[in-house]
Amino acid sequence: MAMKLHGHPLSPATHRVMACLEEKGVEYEFVHIHLSTAHHKESFLSLNPFGQVPALEDGDLKLFESRAITQHLAHTYADNGTPLVPQDPKERAIVYVWMEVESQRFDATAAKLSYELVTKPMLGMTTNDAVVEEHQEKLGKVLDIYESRLAKSKYLGGEVFSLADLHHLPIVSHLFGTKTKALFDARTHVSGWGAGILARPAWQKVVEKMKH
Amino acid sequence: MAMKLHGHPLSPATHRVMACLEEKGVEYEFVHIHLSTAHHKESFLSLNPFGQVPALEDGDLKLFESRAITQHLAHTYADNGTPLVPQDPKERAIVYVWMEVESQRFDATAAKLSYELVTKPMLGMTTNDAVVEEHQEKLGKVLDIYESRLAKSKYLGGEVFSLADLHHLPIVSHLFGTKTKALFDARTHVSGWGAGILARPAWQKVVEKMKH
């Protein structure tokens, strides 16, 4: 039985899991969850008590939280497609560090910019310029550290692409369509890294699927 | 050579790593980092470019981000002390889900309460009551879901204590000394879980060490 990914075509967290499934070349069924529909929401709570997409059904295993799902996929399908977590314990430890940096440092500020500059306009809401300014300043400081890291290392987690890079994809993709892209452009290595991960065939497949 | 934990006695993230080291029964040297001292800060940046404690030196491996360090310790010292991550892939996947819940749902709001109600008074700053009220409401909703989870499962990640519980310790410990404890007290299973993890001998050792 194919895995079922319960998600929404506009949800960055859903895209994060899709990117992982495509990198692994694992087949899956996409279940479109309409969280605005009470009936959908009620039944979805059995998959994720927090009521947010995505959730994954892999046989009798029910998982939520996009970054937990990608880790499960990376371990379970270690031999399929792109290896996303190194086998070597020391290399893996470094990948974990940069996965945490994405979650604690990057996402904490970049997701707010994505919300203000992409989600709000899409929903006909007004962007709060003060919030944008505050978070652009914070993101700039994070990207300064990324620039130093990427000057020494091809990817954030080491010399090969890993979950530490993959987890950034949905928000980097959003921000590359906004004025915040200037923060990336201003930093040579960050800019090249961003363009490079967005150009990956697996991510392009996600973008293509989300058009339909 | 013993591992070196670079931290600060008042840092919750430092306590998170100490709890893990104590559960594993691994010897380590504590290096007190004074981040207010320019000299310390400068040299500390080579361990963590974000300039925040803790950081761990394990031989030639240099790690930062408390939750990445605990994962490294749990994997590297899998056979020492308390097993903090299950070997079984399905059980492990569920532990990862609740580790992400701690990071994305619990900490996002509980750490703000800890800052307002513990850190600020300690530094002679004024608590912002509006922020406290906002985050108490948010935390209450998270704890409602914890209550359902803990009614069915002894610990968050399953029937045994794991990193999913351990990562909560420093902030739960702080909040149990504030009025926010009422949110825990109002929920039977959450209250028992909180008291249970705080009573663990490993955590008691951390509390004891931090008194000196």
Automatic annotation (TrEMBL), chains A, B:
Matching entries from PROSITE patterns are given as:
GST_CTER (PS50405), GST_NTER (PS50404)
Which GO MF terms are attached to this record? Answer: glutathione binding; glutathione transferase activity
Can you tell which superkingdom this protein's organism belongs to?
Eukaryota
Q: Which reaction is catalysed here?
A: RX + glutathione = an S-substituted glutathione + a halide anion + H(+)
Pfam families in the record = GST_C (PF00043), GST_N (PF02798)
User: Which part of the chain is the GST N-terminal domain?
Assistant: 1-81
- The enzyme's E.C. designation: 2.5.1.18
The cross-references to SUPFAM superfamilies, in alphabetical order and at most eight, read: GST C-terminal domain-like, Thioredoxin-like
- The signal peptide here is none
Keyword Transferase: yes or no?
A: yes
Domain GST C-terminal: from-to ranges: 88-212
Please list the GO biological process terms of this entry: glutathione metabolic process; toxin catabolic process
Gene Ontology CC terms, in alphabetical order: cytoplasm
Transferase: is it a keyword of this entry? yes
Which UniProt keywords are given for this protein, alphabetically ordered?
A: Transferase
The cross-references to PANTHER family, in alphabetical order and at most eight, read:
GLUTATHIONE S-TRANSFERASE F6-RELATED (PTHR43900:SF47), GLUTATHIONE S-TRANSFERASE RHO (PTHR43900)
- What is stated as this protein's family in its record? Belongs to the GST superfamily. Phi family.
What is this protein's record name?
A: glutathione transferase
The record lists the organism as Sesamum angolense
